[in-house]
Amino acid sequence: MQENNTQGTDISTLGEFGLIKHLSKNVKLTQASTLKGIGDDAAVLNQSGKKTVVTTDLLVEGIHFDLMYTPLRHLGYKAIVVNVSDVYAMNAEPKQVTVSIAISKRFTLEAIDEIYEGINMACEKYNVDLVGGDTTSSLTGLCISVTAIGEADEDKITYRSGAQVNDLICVTGDLGAAYAGLQLLDREKRIFENNPEIQPDLTGHDYILERQLKPEARKDIFESLQDAKIVPTSMIDISDGLSSELFHICEESNVGCQIYEEKIPIDYETHKMAEELNMNYSIFALNGGEDYELLFTVPLDKFEKIEKIPDVKVIGHICDASKGKYMVARDNTEIALQAQGWTNFTE
Ligand code: ADP
Ligand code: MG
C-alpha cells in the first residue's frame, strides 16, 4: 500500500505550456492517418474512405480508481485500454487518442510522468497515436479523460442492436477476475487502514490483481474475427458485468437470451477468491465489472469457425423477446437476468 508521493518536482515550476511540452516530447506518431498531432489548436486526421468511431471515458479519483493501491503507471495504461476496448467492441480499429487531465497540487511532475509512461506504453501496444488533449488543475484529486478514435468499413461496424433469434452468444477470456481483484485490494486496504503495521498479503493472487490493475483490450479477438471473416451480428465490451451487457444487447436488438451458468468461463483464482469471501463466483462474472472482454453474437452457421478461435466460448443463444432473458443455473433452474445486478440466485 502506498501513500501519495510528497517529494518531487512541483508542477508549477514548469507552467502549463512547459508541462505539455514535457509530456509530449516522448510521443511518437505511427499512423498514416495522423497528419498533425500535438502542437496546434487541433489535431488533423485523414481517414480515407472509412467510417469513424469515437468514444470517451472519464476516470475520476475516488470514484473509478483508488490511488492507495493503483500504481500511476497502471492507471495511465488502463485509461487508454478502456477506450480502445470500446472501439474494438464496434469491430473497429483504434487509431488515435486524446488525453485530458486535471491534476491537483498534490501531484508532482514525477507522478504525472508515471501516468504518461503507462499511457505511452498502451499507445504503443495498441498502435494508436496520442494526438492531443487538455491539461488543467483541479482543487482536489485527479481526473483523466481519454477519447479514442477508430475506423472501420461501414459494413463491418458492429452495433449492440443486430442480434437475431438463434444466434450464438459468445464471450472471450474469463469473467469476474477483475472484480475478484478489486475485492481483494479493498479487503487488504481495510486491514492496512486499521493497522498500518500489517503489510498486505497478496501472494497467490497475481492473475486477479493484474486483471484489476492492468487490464487488456481484446485486439487479438478483433483480428481473429477478421481473419475468420466473421462479422458478429452484435457486440459489446464487458465493462459492467455479463448480466448488464447481455441486457443491453437484448434490449437494443429486441430479443431475449438463454445462457448456461456452467458455460461461463471463470478462472481458478476467481473461484478461490469468491470462496475466501464466502461469495458465489458466478455473481463475480455476472455482476462484477471491468473485465474488458468481448461479448458478441454470431449466426448459428458460424459455430465451427468460432470454435476454432482460441479464447472464445459459446455460452448460450439468442431467443425471442417473449422468452425473456435468463440463465440456466447448474441445478437446471431458470434464473431471470437483471439489468443491474442480479438477484434471486437461490430461488
Ligand atoms: P489550447 O489553448 O488550444 O487548448 P493547449 O495549450 O491546451 O491548447 O494545448 C496545446 C497542444 O497540446 C494541443 O495540441 C493539445 O491537444 C495538446 N495537449 C494539451 N494537453 C495535453 C495532454 N494532457 N496530453 C496530450 N496533449 C495535450
Ligand atoms: Mg487546452
UniProtKB/TrEMBL annotation:
<feature type="binding site">
    <location>
        <position position="342"/>
    </location>
    <ligand>
        <name>substrate</name>
    </ligand>
</feature>
<dbReference type="InterPro" id="IPR006283">
    <property type="entry name" value="ThiL-like"/>
</dbReference>
<dbReference type="GO" id="GO:0009228">
    <property type="term" value="P:thiamine biosynthetic process"/>
</dbReference>
<dbReference type="Pfam" id="PF00586">
    <property type="entry name" value="AIRS"/>
</dbReference>
<keyword id="KW-0784">Thiamine biosynthesis</keyword>
<feature type="binding site">
    <location>
        <position position="41"/>
    </location>
    <ligand>
        <name>Mg(2+) 3</name>
    </ligand>
</feature>
<dbReference type="GO" id="GO:0005524">
    <property type="term" value="F:ATP binding"/>
</dbReference>
<dbReference type="GO" id="GO:0009229">
    <property type="term" value="P:thiamine diphosphate biosynthetic process"/>
</dbReference>
<keyword id="KW-0460">Magnesium</keyword>
<feature type="binding site">
    <location>
        <position position="57"/>
    </location>
    <ligand>
        <name>Mg(2+) 2</name>
    </ligand>
</feature>
<feature type="binding site">
    <location>
        <position position="56"/>
    </location>
    <ligand>
        <name>Mg(2+) 1</name>
    </ligand>
</feature>
<keyword id="KW-0418">Kinase</keyword>
<protein>
    <recommendedName>
        <fullName>Thiamine-monophosphate kinase</fullName>
        <ecNumber>2.7.4.16</ecNumber>
    </recommendedName>
</protein>
<dbReference type="GO" id="GO:0009030">
    <property type="term" value="F:thiamine-phosphate kinase activity"/>
</dbReference>
<feature type="binding site">
    <location>
        <position position="116"/>
    </location>
    <ligand>
        <name>ATP</name>
    </ligand>
</feature>
<dbReference type="InterPro" id="IPR036676">
    <property type="entry name" value="PurM-like_C_sf"/>
</dbReference>
<feature type="binding site">
    <location>
        <position position="290"/>
    </location>
    <ligand>
        <name>substrate</name>
    </ligand>
</feature>
<feature type="binding site">
    <location>
        <position position="64"/>
    </location>
    <ligand>
        <name>substrate</name>
    </ligand>
</feature>
<keyword id="KW-0808">Transferase</keyword>
<comment type="pathway">
    <text>Cofactor biosynthesis; thiamine diphosphate biosynthesis; thiamine diphosphate from thiamine phosphate: step 1/1.</text>
</comment>
<feature type="binding site">
    <location>
        <position position="240"/>
    </location>
    <ligand>
        <name>Mg(2+) 5</name>
    </ligand>
</feature>
<feature type="binding site">
    <location>
        <position position="239"/>
    </location>
    <ligand>
        <name>ATP</name>
    </ligand>
</feature>
<keyword id="KW-0547">Nucleotide-binding</keyword>
<dbReference type="InterPro" id="IPR036921">
    <property type="entry name" value="PurM-like_N_sf"/>
</dbReference>
<feature type="binding site">
    <location>
        <position position="134"/>
    </location>
    <ligand>
        <name>Mg(2+) 1</name>
    </ligand>
</feature>
<feature type="binding site">
    <location>
        <position position="237"/>
    </location>
    <ligand>
        <name>Mg(2+) 3</name>
    </ligand>
</feature>
<keyword id="KW-0479">Metal-binding</keyword>
<keyword id="KW-0067">ATP-binding</keyword>
<comment type="function">
    <text>Catalyzes the ATP-dependent phosphorylation of thiamine-monophosphate (TMP) to form thiamine-pyrophosphate (TPP), the active form of vitamin B1.</text>
</comment>
<feature type="binding site">
    <location>
        <position position="57"/>
    </location>
    <ligand>
        <name>Mg(2+) 1</name>
    </ligand>
</feature>
<feature type="binding site">
    <location>
        <position position="86"/>
    </location>
    <ligand>
        <name>Mg(2+) 3</name>
    </ligand>
</feature>
<feature type="binding site">
    <location>
        <position position="160"/>
    </location>
    <ligand>
        <name>ATP</name>
    </ligand>
</feature>
<comment type="similarity">
    <text>Belongs to the thiamine-monophosphate kinase family.</text>
</comment>
<feature type="binding site">
    <location>
        <position position="86"/>
    </location>
    <ligand>
        <name>Mg(2+) 2</name>
    </ligand>
</feature>
<feature type="domain" description="PurM-like N-terminal">
    <location>
        <begin position="39"/>
        <end position="151"/>
    </location>
</feature>
<feature type="binding site">
    <location>
        <begin position="133"/>
        <end position="134"/>
    </location>
    <ligand>
        <name>ATP</name>
    </ligand>
</feature>
<feature type="binding site">
    <location>
        <position position="41"/>
    </location>
    <ligand>
        <name>Mg(2+) 4</name>
    </ligand>
</feature>
<feature type="binding site">
    <location>
        <position position="55"/>
    </location>
    <ligand>
        <name>Mg(2+) 4</name>
    </ligand>
</feature>
<dbReference type="InterPro" id="IPR016188">
    <property type="entry name" value="PurM-like_N"/>
</dbReference>
<feature type="binding site">
    <location>
        <position position="86"/>
    </location>
    <ligand>
        <name>Mg(2+) 4</name>
    </ligand>
</feature>
<dbReference type="GO" id="GO:0000287">
    <property type="term" value="F:magnesium ion binding"/>
</dbReference>
